[in-house]
Amino acid sequence: METRELFDRYVVPNYGRFPLALARGEGCRVWDEAGKCYLDFGAGIAVTSLGHAHPRLIEVMAEQAARLVHTSNLYYTRPQGELARRLVEVVDIPGKVFFCNSGAEANEALLKLSRKYGHESVPPPPRHTTGELSGRARHRHHVITFRGSFHGRTFAGISATGQDKVKTGFTPLLESFSHLEFNDAPAVLSAITPETVAIMVEPVLGEGGIHLAEAHFLRQLRTICDDYGLLLFFDEVQCGLGRTGDWCGWKSIAPDVVPDGVSWAKGIAGGFPLGAVWIRDHAVEMKTGEKKSLADILGPGSHGSTFGGTPLVCAGALEVLRVIEEEKLLQNARTLGAYAVQRLEMLPSPPIAEVRALGLMIGIELAEDFGSANDRAPSLQLVDRLHEAGMLSIPAGNHTIRWLPPLNVTRAEIDAAIDILARVLQKSV
Ligand code: PLP
Predict the structure, then answer these.
(1) DSSP alpha helix (H) spans, 302-393
(2) Secondary structure (H, E, C), 239-262
């Protein structure tokens, strides 16, 4: 039976898959079962941050697998502690880390933290004491997120996500979310009620088509959170840990902003499943009268995950972070991201309408009428044609494709990608 037939017969059809069966990878390239080679500018949707089959990652994983794979979180294991320390170092703000397995779970942890904080902490007296805001909710639980955002596929994740397509057929959802216009701080200010407890934002909308938050917007969100005692969460699942050319995506935009929580997954362990959240070490006044660090609010028994932070995956993530540091891949993401944009901007417009990018998070938006003779979304049509030409890219909405190559992509690989795209676009007009 062919691979596709196995899927048709035995795999739940919840993904719209492209007709490619991939068999192996090396660096920035993958091969399908027929032996055709593709330049991989999707990296598994920003996951294989060191490319495929990186020798150092393979070696560390093999060594750790032979020593200790899993113990449960009933015990201490060295790699988890070391990785938590490293993540706090890269954020460079005092805090602590919780480990899980995916981006949705990381956001779930932040959202559960906001509930506990809302239930158990004393809301600071609002600085602006007029109107509705003069009241204090007994349990603050409402979270503000933004249109076009994507926060994962759990019930909390789809409730938080600012895109209707992920919600269809799954109501009733969690009610505690408002989705506001991205980059509109006055809208946030007017949406705050005594129930509001947190704001969750992607510093770069990834699934939403690579739209960057403005520095001013992120700074205003921090001020609003300070004024109303709200938690500020950055969903860095896609944009974090090097992709934008900085360890922290938001620091590529507004380095001075201090969040209360950050979620990661995707590239953190170079392709092995791991999610994590950083929580700020920040004193909170509790209803019991004690002061507690925000980072300690999720106490014993409050949350957990069987597989979260195994020694195996943490050893892998530590090696990924080491390689990023030693091979200067943050710099590479900045330099080659800028180079790719410069070359993309020289391609004809139309069919390219706009290029939006931060480091190696690159969005290429197509003109409104691209592929209009066909019912299939323009972004999918272009991705199909790029497949034929030997290249993987990721659609984001109807008119945008994303390039999210590994952080160690080379200039020659960027040149090869641009040449393929130029050829494909030339044939399309
Ligand atoms: N948050 C963001 C910004 C994402 O891009 C994604 C996945 O695309 C998620 C959360 C969900 O991550 P996962 O698929 O690992 O649950």
Answers:
(1) 311-326, 329-344, 378-388
(2) CCCCCCCCCCHHHHCCCCCCCCEE
Ligand 1 center to 78 CA (angstroms): 27
Ligand 1 probe mutation, 149, 150, 305, 404, most atoms within 8 A of CB: 150
Backbone angles phi, psi at 195, to 5 degrees: -85, -15
Which ligand 1 atom lies nearest to the CA of residue 149? 3
Q: What is the mean pLDDT of residues 15-34?
A: 98
Structure tokens at 103: 């981006």
The 10s digit of each residue's pLDDT in 280-322 is 999 999 999 999 999 999 999 999 999 999 999 999 999 999 9
Is residue 243 lining ligand 1, measured as CB closer than 6 Å?
A: no
Label residue 126 by pLDDT band (50, 70, 90): low
Q: Global pTM? A: 0.97
Asked whether the CA dihedral 170, 162, 267, 279 is positive or negative, the reply is: negative
Atom of ligand 1 nearest to the CA of 104: 16
Residue 259 has pLDDT above 70, yes or no: yes
Tell me the C-alpha distance between 13 and 6, whole Å: 11
Distance 267 CA to ligand 1 centre (A): 11
DSSP state, 266? G
Q: What is the residue with the minimal CA distance to atom 10 of ligand 1?
A: 151
Pairing of strands 211-212, 204-205: antiparallel
Q: Whose CA is closest to atom 1 on ligand 1?
A: 151
- Position 427 scores a pLDDT of 86
